[in-house]
Structures are given as structure tokens and as C-alpha cells.
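Data availability (excerpt). The following record was deposited with the supplementary files.
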Amino acid sequence: MTTLTICNADNSGKTEVLREFNAIAAKLKSIGVQFEKWQANKILAKDADQAAVLEAYQESVDKLNKQYGFKSIDVVSLLPDNPKKEEFRQKFLAEHTHADFEVRFFVDGSGLFYLHVNGKVYMVVCEKGDLISVPANTTHWFDMGEKPYFKCIRFFTTPEGWLGNFTGNDIATKFPSFDQHLSAVA
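Predicted structure:
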């Protein structure tokens, strides 16, 4: 289930948990984060390739592309049996920013974005059908869990694709992992 958990950046004090999509989207909009629900125009096989995925979401992809003029759009997936899953996971676990905004649409599976904004951490569990756009220069990190399972459409306005600027802040170590967080909000 898509959820938004908001806590103080020092992980103390009251925690707010939202489970209703419109409330989540409104709260994220207040910090400049675009959050939408998309639906495929046809049923996709679990092993659908990039072309099939993009075709199934063509209308939504085209609308977003018209708005932002992306230079690159691709589909990435990671399954629990991938031998490099821990290497991939570690790449995104440290707090970082991007000069460009980060846009991901979850075709399948799930992941947890942590957004560090204005003294708060917004933990967004994204699942199938969720699109999230993290504004440029927003400090954040991402956890796909110990047994990652997701397929995402990635959108880039720069030809280089994903380039992280790591902050050196150890804040990510002070928050629950994706797996721990899912257990707590279930």
C-alpha cells in the first residue's frame, strides 16, 4: 500500500502517517513533489520488455514528456534473484541530490523514497501505479529492500541520466530500512 510517513529529521517526536492517495499527493505537493497515479492501457505480462511497458503507458508518458521534454526514457527492473542486488541497493542508500529532478513511475513492485526537506523526512512507499517526481537539489535517498522487486520507467532531461551528488550526511543510517518500515506501517 502506498504510504507517506513524515518525521523530524532527527527521527524524534510525533510521526504522521498518511495512507489515502489524495492526502499523500497534497502533502507532497506542499514540498514541490509531483505524485500521481497512472494506469496501463492494457494488461502487461510480468516479463514485459521496455517497448511493451512504454506502449502500455504511452498516453501518460507522452503527456509528461510534453511537459518536461525528456532526453531519455527507459525501463529498469530488479528482481530478488539478481546477483548484484546488494551493489545496486547500496548505490542509492546514502543521502544525495541531483542537478535535475528525479522522475520514477512504478510499473510493478515497490520502493521507498526518503525526502529530507525543511527539517523533516518524508518516507514515501511507492508501489505499482505511482509516479514520483523529486525536485532538483532535494536531498533524498532510496531503498529497494533486501529482496528488491520493481520495474520502473525512468525519465531524464539530461543525456547523462542518473548522476548523484552525495551530501556526506549520515542521516540515512538513522531511519528504518525499507523492510523495517514496511513492517512498521503494515
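Summary of structural features: The chain is about 25% helix and 35% strand.
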